[in-house]
Amino acid sequence: MMSALQPSELDRPPLARSRSAADADFKSVSAVLRRADFGDRLRSLALAAPLLVLLALSFGIPIVLLLSRAVYDPTIANALPQTAQALSGWNGQGLPDDATFVALAADLRSSQAKGTAYELAKSLNARLPGARSQVLKTVRQLEGAGDKPPLEVMKSVPFWSQPGTWPSIANGTHSITSFYLMSALDLRWNNDGGIERVPPEQAIFLQVFMRTFFVAAAVTLATLILGFPLAYLIASVPKGLAAILIVAVLLPFWTSILVRTAAWTVLLQKFGLVNDLLLWLGVAEVRLDLMYSRIGLIIAMTHIQLPFTLLPIYSIMRTIQPSQMKAAYSLGAKPFTAFRRVYLPQVFPGVMAGCLLTFILCLGYYITPALIGGASDQLISNFIANYVNVELNWEMAAALSFILLVFTLALFGIFARILGLDRLKLV
Amino acid sequence: MKITKTRLLALAAATAWMAIGHAAVADELSIMASGGAWQDAQRKAWFEPFSKETGTKIVEQEYLGDLGKVKAMVDTGNVPIDLVTVETATVLQGCDAGILERLDYSKIAPREKFIAGSALDCGVGLDAYGDILAYDPTVLKEAPTSVLDLFDTKKFPGKRAMRKFPAQNLEWALMADGVAPADVYKVLGTPEGVDRAFKKLDTIKKDIVWWDAGAQPAQLLASQEVVMTTAWNGRIQNAIDTDKKPFKIVWNNQILEYDMIAIPKGAKSPDLAYKYLAYISQPENNAKLASYITYGPVRTDAASFVAADALPKLPNAPDHLAGAYLVADTEFWGDYGEDLVKRFNAWLAQ
């Protein structure tokens, strides 16, 4: 947008002007530039607007809405308004007073009338295992109680007088809840209002998060070790051969991930091809358990992810002139020095881009761990899917997704900080 | 003028077509089932005869049994299905979450005519299947006599496959530890009982290969990765009858479960759905499925209608209920399922 500047202003001989006038000129020039720049940005933003709106509507809003379930669960608060009121004066020690029991009985009755008793039972059960049938049983008893006072009915069900029951209800009556996020980190509130770890036989998610990051890192490293030399080979052979190699890399890329995973189950099983080959070669003496194991999972995921790591590296390698290396040799560099000081710094952004792509994609793997991984190789996606599809506990699923997102963004942030985001080059 | 007339005619034709289309929609019943041999059997036993008898067109859909899909349909108010087949535990989840219709049994069949536990508030039973033990007698020289032989690694060394799920395994573990079938769910409802069950599973943990999909047990037996496996009886029977495998089924200490069908909230043709439910719940129709897959009827008065050659293969055939058996407690798993699945996964990872 240089046309906005008046050439005559710039052409004036500087000596003819005072210092302050020159300063003023400089300021006005940069202001003009800035304005022009701003207009430019606005225009490109306007061009991208349809895409941005589409992304916000179809991607941003649904994700925010789903993730908000991790902290917003009004089911119990809506179903138990009177109890919430009565509990506001409770100190959290022992059992609440009789009025609270009566309020709960009234709430249960009205939730039965409104048809929300089952939802309440399910929601409470997520916090307090076993509560589901107790709520439904109490609702039925209240219905059939006749003249019996509600307090008596409530006291006749031992569940309502147990020590763990009321703190859970009191926690549940807050619509904004930290329960699911805490559970996703294997934490919980104890009865004194402090945070504590859940007992070891219930602690699972931190372990699964660690496992997910470990598998993703291992697969990323494996694809780099395999992909880097291959990318170098493709970049350095004649065009025709390079095209054939590229097709060979891309061919599996065009096959459905499910098909590739299924193919690996055929290869890796106990009496499968890989084991046959290893025995025949004498590498292994007994048949190895490759299926349902961590190693089998990493092999299959490495195969699936290889193109994602390789292509960004290859696209950068292609741009590097072979003459540069020759120049380095001619200046006395040994091959390794030339590689380390001339070649590697130039391909580094491609390596980082490929590795980042693979690492982040690996964090969301679902079908391959489900089919090839063993019982202790399930990644966080498998647990999220279980809460979405089987338990119908979308709050827990949202909480796990949220934690995964935070961990991933944090890693991405550290990564960008150390290496500089501008150095990343995707294909 | 002529063009206008043609256009009018076309418009009229289009309107008529749409009217016909709408009439056709009214007589269309959309059923979502979980595919495979089981859906094929339902087609032959129920879909086609019902279609012929009533002139209803049945549109079939398939899914993996994941109720999350149905929840998404109901939540967004776009429910393109009228009936959905579900597992018993899933019926409870769906009922609580308010995505399945509470059924009016006066439109189906008298509730007391169903086997206990097979007529739920939101789902009506289709068939009964057994969680059984299967083995290959050409590999295992000594025949197991009970599902609980899973826990006897001295007498039956080698890998055994079990479903990667706490249900059934915890029940079997307690029974193998000496708990009477009648007390299993009472014991499992206490923290000590859960500890006891996991402790028993610990004794064979290193010998277990876990399976996820129903087709896996037969494959694991065939590839000799395991010497015995738990399985759904129909899958093993299918391998015996169709693939001519030499497998054998152990019925003693089996756990009986039911397949269910339900109406999602907001279904477009609930009346037609009820008509279908009433049709398949008649004892003679309920018994028909057994001719196509070895799952038994859920009506108490249907046994006499089961084809003679099918009866000996059913999980609830009199012979197979002669020994010990357990009926899966849906209410228990509704209460403790989520918690025990989590604990089970933590245990697996240890």
Automatic annotation (TrEMBL), chain B:
Keywords annotated in UniProt: Periplasm, Signal
Signal peptide as annotated in the record: 1-23
Gene3D superfamilies the UniProt entry points to: Periplasmic binding protein-like II (3.40.190.10)
Keyword Transmembrane helix: no
Pfam families noted in UniProt: SBP_bac_8
UniProt superkingdom: Bacteria
InterPro entries, A to Z: SBP
Protein name per Swiss-Prot or TrEMBL: Spermidine/putrescine ABC transporter substrate-binding protein
Annotated organism of origin: Mesorhizobium kowhaii
